[in-house]
Amino acid sequence: APRPHQPTVVVFPGDLGTTLTNKQLAEEYLHRYGYTQVMELSDDDQALSRALRVLQRRLSLPETGELDSTTLEAMRAPRCGVPDLGK
Amino acid sequence: FQTFEGDLKWKHENITYWIQNYSEDLPRDVIDDAFARAFAVWSAVTPLTFTRVYGQEADIVIQFGVREHGDGYPFDGKDGLLAHAFPPGPGIQGDSHFDDEELWSLGKGVVVPTFFGNADGAPCHFPFTFEGRSYSACTTDGRSDDQLWCSTTADFDTDRRFGFCPSERLYTQHGNSDGKPCVFPFTFEGRSYSACTTDGRSDGYRWCATTANYDQDKLYGFCPTRVDSTVTGGNSAGELCVFPFIFLGKEYSTCTRDGRNDGHLWCATTSNFDNDRKWGFCPDQGYSLFLVAAHEFGHALGLDHTNVPEALMYPMYSYTEQPPLHEDDVKGIQHLYGGPRPKPEPRPPTTTPETQPTAPPTVCTTVRPSEGPTTGPTGPPSAGPTGAPTAGPSVAPTASLDPAENVCNVDIFDAIAEMGGYLHLFKDGRYWRFSEAQGRRVQGPFRIRDTWPALPPKLDSAFEEPLTKKMFFFAGRQVWVYTGASVLGPRRLDKLGFGPEVAEVTGALPRGAGKVLLFSRQNFWRFDAKSQMVDPKSASPVDQMFPGVPLNMHDVFQYRDEAYFCQDRFYWRVNSQNEVNQVDEVGYVTYDLLQCP
Asked: How many CB atoms are closer than 10 A to CB B330?
């Protein structure tokens, strides 16, 4: 029987969205919307978890402190550019 | 709800806003309306009022921009960050910015107005079915003249309702060709072009020649935006899909999700993606400008983000057709400004007509297409009478307390015309009457709709044809003709023989024997009141026949056998003794004509 066709995924030129890892996406999001002051997260998982908890509380998401699918989905959702925290 | 640190709020209640520029995604009147409705969401629950103005002095400046657009907070391309706004205060504070790499709609897909056909300008309905096939964009299928069209209902096969889509084959905008359509191919710098191009320009606007040889004739126009097939994002934002295109060796004649795992539809903007790698995202539902604007205006009034997911001030976008305000939003805004003012008691109908925002004419005209080659049945114009006007204007109170009702407070009138022996002065849905014979006393204001129910509040010009006593009223590209109590219209200006380049009629000078000069900005045409047609070939520049009058007048009228040309608060009076038109007086409309103190 014919095998289901595996869809080919192409990297489109100029398409940034597909090149960030989930963690990079999270770090950029947390910084852009005021959850972290500077991009100091790269090697401090505790700090990332703390920041994620604040975001999850602020956006009424389940508070897990983890970069789970619900949180990632929220980070990919279209939204307003005004930061959630800070001035 | 949350407010900004220190409860930032406006210290006054009559807030002004300025729409600084427009996205090409939506017709301008749809954008104006979306912003007005977004402000109304907040004025309904507070004492705040919102008035549109035209300058930087506005409290809230509204702007469309892409990436870095001047405030140090760059946008991020399609999706993601949609818009942002600043809390109340001077300067940039209060301003609201919208990312023009988004597709702005009313939340349910592209809004494409139509011209001619038989749907009276109704927007396209996507998808629609034609000969059993589904279309999600305008098409030339079924036509031999290559004109793009769409159905304005879901099923053309049964409803047969259609209109022509904005297209460079139907008309062009601005430029120097009076709206004529493109000619393909055309030659530019020796090269042949068979489609619109941005070559030769640095602003990215697509243009074409309206003759076969631009190098020789130098005649051009800008191509209307084809929002149904223009891509966003990718590396060709603003360009059109090219169908068919080749992708991984296969031919595609519609947008596809192949090759992506995020489910977005895309297309190539050249015929071969494999070679050229040029692409962009196809139109999707887009984002409701009304909903996003209502959210951003919440910020501009002092509200911060809330953590109530159902509330308008929750940071994430979600589309709804319900009224957007949640209890949480109302509590927040009323914490800052209090509740709405109690509504005034109803008063006898003859007083206090509605107040309208002042809105001077916009400078840029949207050029409409000339009569399409096959317009098909356009259906009967809406026939009158739509209700008998009262025998005369309802008698206004002799003393009025409201300063807005004092004719002497009006700077610029929408229209002025001599009718029935009275000089009529129209402004924002009201009018005053003035007659030399009646002791120069001004009567009014009266409500336009009480006398001429079919008319809109905002008029561009009016005149009474002495022979037939017919009264013509103009607003935008529409005309109404009152014969006593009955009305014919609105009808489009092209029914009078005007071309697409005429966006408004700004005045009229009856010349006797049923002949009238109709003015549109710097030109005038000869109009025959019997046939109700202008002679298209009669277009002439105003200063050719009336030297010395201002060129950008906003009203021209005849009064006691003399012609008046108005600009701002002034008039230039021209008398035509011994066949020579000469300006013999310049004055103020209110002080010199109406004898205001």
From this structure: 18
Angstrom CA distances, A56 to A52, A74, B260, B461, stand at 6, 9, 29, 59
| CB-closest option in A7, A12, A80 to B315 | A80
Contact A9/B at CB under 8 A = yes
Examine the residue annotation and report whether B296 is marked as an active-site residue of this protein.
Answer: yes
d(CA B554, CA B518): 13
Picking from B99, B235, B315, the nearest residue to A84 by CB comes out as B315
d(CA A59, CA A53) in angstroms, rounded, equals 10
Where b means 16+ CB within 10 Å and e means fewer, B424-454 reads bbbbbbbbbbbeeeeeeebbbbbbbbbbbbb
- B358/B411 Cα distance (integer angstroms): 10
pLDDT, one tens digit per residue, over B407-443 is 888 888 999 999 888 899 999 889 998 877 656 678 8
Between B167-176, B263-272, B275-284, B545-554, the lowest mean confidence (pLDDT) is in B545-554
- DSSP code for B438: T
Region of B238 (left: φ > 0; alpha: ψ -120 to 50; beta: rest) is left
Q: Does B316 touch chain A (CB under 8 A)?
A: yes
Whether the ipTM is more than 0.90: the answer is: no
Residue in B closest to A79 by C-alpha:
B316
* DSSP SS3 for B246: strand
Angle (CA) B261-B264-B267 rounded to 5° is 110
- Model confidence pLDDT, tens digit, residues B281-296: 899 899 999 999 999 9
- pLDDT computed for residue B266 by the predictor: 92
**B 384-423 residues inside an 8 A Cβ radius of A:** none
- Does the beta-carbon distance from B260 to A14 stay under 8 Å? no
Q: Does A63 touch chain B (CB under 8 A)?
A: no
DSSP three-state, residue B425: strand
- Residue A60 has its nearest CB partner, among B80, B84, B307, at B307
Q: Is the pLDDT of residue B356 over 70?
A: no
Q: What is the DSSP letter of B153?
A: S
Q: What is the CA radius of gyration of chain B?
A: 27
Tell me the shortest Cα–Cα distance from B430 to chain A, in angstroms. 41
Mean pLDDT of B56-68: 92
Per-residue model confidence as pLDDT tens digits over B184-227? 999 999 999 998 998 998 777 889 999 999 999 999 998 988 88
Euclidean distance between the first and the last CA atom of chain B, given in angstroms as a whole number: 52
**Is the pLDDT assigned to residue B350 strictly greater than 60?**
no
B85 interaction partners in chain A (CB closer than 8 Å):
82
Q: Quick one: CA torsion of B318, B321, B322, B324, rounded to 10 degrees?
A: 50
Lowest mean pLDDT among A9-13, B246-250, B389-393, B523-527: B389-393
By CB atoms closer than 10 A (0-12, 13-18, 19+), residue B250 is exposed
Residues A64 and A79 sit within 8 Å (Cβ to Cβ): no
- B73 interfacial to chain A (CB closer than 8 Å): yes
**Residue B371 clears pLDDT 50, i.e. is over it:** no
- CB of A19 within 8 Å of any CB in chain B? no
How many other C-beta atoms are found inside a 10 Å radius of the C-beta of residue B580?
A: 9
CA A15/CA A11 separation, integer angstroms: 7
What does the pLDDT read at residue B289?
Answer: 97
d(CA B538, CA B517) in angstroms, rounded, equals 10
pLDDT tops 70 at residue B135: yes
